[in-house]
Amino acid sequence: MESVIAVNSLVKVFSDKTVLDHLQFKVYKGEIFGFLGPSGAGKTVTIKILTGQLSPTDGSAYVFDVPSTEINSPQYLKKLGIMTDNSGLYQRLTIYDNLKLYCELYRVSVKRIGDVLEMVQLQDVQKKNVATLSKGMTQRVILARALLHEPELLFLDEPTAALDPVNSKHIHKGLLELKEKGTTIFLTTHDMNEAESVCDRVAFLDKGKIQLLNKPKRLRQRFSDATMTLELVDGSTVVLENGSENAQKVYEYMLANQIVSIHTNEPTLGDIFVHVTGRELV
Amino acid sequence: MNVSMRRVYAIFVKDFKELSKNMYVLTTLLTPLLLAFVFGQAETVSLKIQLMIINITFVSVTAFVQSAIIAEEKEKNTLRGLMMSPASTADILGGKSLLSVILTVGTMILCLLITDFHLINEPMLLLALLISLVFYAGLGTLLGLWTKSLLEASVAIVPVIFILGMGTLFQKLIQPYPLLKFMEYFPNFQLEFLTEAVEREASFGEVLGYFGVITGWTVLVLIVTVTVYRKRSMDE
């Protein structure tokens, strides 16, 4: 598989604080890579190094086979879409005027404005001044701006942090559509549902180190306690270990028509994070 | 360094729309016009006063508007967006300077007409004004990059107004102090000496030194500005 991002033993130290401690991972073309961790774990620092806004203290990071320290040049920047905490909008201008400026900078048709505003569901308010928008709407405009030029690689730093569930779901649908078109997405979040629903692979970042990296499904299987819970008609629940030895018991409950539901007891990504790091993902 | 006129123009249009809604910065345009109007009431306006108005136009319109535009971009986190786009340093700095340059030219023409500036058609003086314009645009960009907000930029411009805008008025005050002699090498003093020489109908050779000093300042400011700008594209 072709890698778009390759990080090798990446270290970042601020003063005497090690923020990233020998990170090692690859992001492959066309995947949605989730970078999960609590606030202060080093997610944004990683994005800033990958987009050339910070230089590594040690180790290396390559984006499109180019050292991240050299990615900050026009020929590469047009391939990137970036949405981070320092992405601002012009408050006195309308949504449309903000996006029009970026159409000119990226040399794309202004017709794209309609497409991206539809994706973030803001097409009806494009003539509104940015200063009058809610935090969630502002976030959606910044996301729309990052998508304008159909970048090959999209960096999204907590893209749905200020959004309600309906809008988050819509954004997730849009991200999956982008993935279908071949866009690679590097997504940081501390929303485990978001990670589960859109990410092909996730990395757990804690204290500057990657604690786990795999597909969400594999992680759930790995940390599963291999049991199932049967919910019965009388309101009680029965927990059974997965395996042939319990097949007869399940069969008997079914014959007696006592089962309301059966589900396997796989942990959520949040449970796994707590298990691995010993702390909540907030 | 590549320059895309389409990008320069897009940034200019954006700045124009933003500034047209920013009354705080727009009112600074009135300062030189007000001075020109007040002094223009006299029967004759001395060359020294006319030059003070020219220098104040450079400081309060070129440098201040420029620094305000850049500082506000930093304050609102929009400058990084431009830096992380495919626009080159020249596209961004060119686009961001165009508005303050156009406003300066318009304001200065009005001020010179109001004060009946008789050297307005002198090619040597026009060239010196053009180089000074680039110097003040660069200085404004630098102030904008150094400050973090519009408010800070408004404070940072105050000493610049005194030294470069009104400094020539205090020439007699600094003459007894040899230590302050270096101020005569500031671009505003050099512009005044050059203008006086042009009025005496001096040859180009005689004013070459003044041109050299003003150009030297301009090149220095541009080098520092581009260096600081590139540093600002990083978070180190």
Q: Which features would summarize this protein structure in a list?
A:
heterodimer, A: 282 residues, alpha/beta, Rossmann fold, six-stranded mixed beta sheet, four-stranded antiparallel beta sheet, 10 helices, B: 236 residues, mainly alpha, 75% helix, transmembrane helix (chain B), ABC2_TM (chain B)
Beta-strand proportion of chain A: 25-35%
What's the CATH first level of the domain at 3-79 and 151-220 in chain A?
A: Alpha Beta
Helix and strand pattern of chain A: EEEHEEHEHHHEHEHEEHEEHEH
Shape of chain A: globular
Helix percentage range of chain A: 25-40%
Strand order in space, largest sheet of chain A: 6-7-8-3-9-10
- Low-confidence stretches of chain A are none
Q: Which whole number gives the mean pLDDT of chain A?
A: 91
Mean pLDDT of chain B: 91
SS summary, helix count of chain B: 11
What structural category do the secondary elements of chain A indicate?
alpha/beta
Shape of chain B: globular
- What's the SSE pattern of chain B? HHHHHHHHHHH
Q: Architecture of the domain at 3-79 and 151-220 in chain A in CATH?
A: 3-Layer(aba) Sandwich
Tally of distinct domains of chain B: 1
Structure description:
With about 280 residues, chain A is an alpha/beta fold. In chain A, the strands form three sheets. Chain A has a six-stranded mixed sheet, sandwiched between helices. A four-stranded antiparallel sheet of chain A has the order 2-1-4-5, with helices on one face. Chain A has a three-stranded antiparallel sheet with strand order 12-11-13, covered by helices on one side. In chain A, helix 4 (about 110-120) packs across helix 5. Chain A has helices at about 45-50, 75, 95-105, 110-120, 135-145, 165-180, 190-200, 215-220, 245-255, 270-275, and strands at about 5-15, 15-30, 30-35, 60-65, 65, 80-85, 155, 185-190, 200-205, 210-215, 225-230, 235-240, 260-265. Chain B has one domain (about 5-230). In chain B, about 75% of the residues lie in helices and about 0% in strands. Chain B is built from eleven helices and no strands. The two termini of chain B are about 25 Å apart. In chain B, about 45% of the residues are buried. The mean pLDDT of chain B is about 90. The chains are: A alpha/beta (about 280), B mainly alpha (about 240). Chains A and B meet through helix 2 and helix 3 of A and helix 1 and helix 5 of B. Chain A: GO terms for molecular function: ATP binding; ATP hydrolysis activity. Chain A: This is ABC-2 type transport system ATP-binding protein. Chain A: Pfam families: ABC_tran. Chain A: Keywords: ATP-binding, Nucleotide-binding, Transport.
